[in-house]
Amino acid sequence: MKALLLVDLQVDFCALGALEVPDGDAVIPLANQLMPAFDLVVATKDWHPANHGSFAANHPWRKPGQVIDLHGLPQVLWPIHCVQGSMGADFHAALHQDGIDAIIHKGTDPEIDSYSGFFDNGQRQATGLEGLLRERGVEEVYVLGLATDYCVKYTVLDALRLGFSTTLLTDATRGVELQAGDVAAALRKMEEAGAVLISSDAISSSTAP
Ligand code: VGL
Ligand code: ZN
User: Fold this and answer.
1) What is the percent of the chain where pLDDT is above 70?
2) How many other C-beta atoms can be found within 10 angstroms of the C-beta atom of residue 165?
3) Which pTM was predicted?
4) What is the CATH number of the domain that holds 190?
């Protein structure tokens, strides 16, 4: 069984969003096109409480982009984004939500961030994504979404670590690129860990009727 993982296709990561990923909107039509080719489609949502520790605004005199120690883990500080129930946390309006079989929420604990769709950044709490995939007999996962150098990267690395055969759809992901070269480094790291990197047209054409 093959699953498609849609990582954080939310308003705040798209154009004019609070944590805008450059050209992030470009992945939405690709997600829509790919969904019907999979047995299972799971979407993750970054889903933070307003007091989340990853928000610079929750730390006096801190600014987005700075790194702090958050309960023992290095934490990049971000603008307030994807607050539970806010419009910024909604899926992008053009995403075909009918094609989504399950939604996994992450980043709900104010004390720790969760870039991966599988576990928090300390690998302490599972989100339920692994259980869902195992229950449905999924062995292969295909990943797309936002952002390449954060949530996509850690989702891919965890999927590989858990033994899923993992493919990144490179044209259907965009990065934050806080530092120049972050996206290239993330791609390299995923490939070194065993991910297959392909362009999404390889899927659409091989599964077309
Ligand atoms: C993300 C930064 C903070 C992501 C989420 O989806 O990549 N990045 N929260
Ligand atoms: Zn976040």
Assistant:
1) 97
2) 15
3) 0.97
4) 3.40.50.850
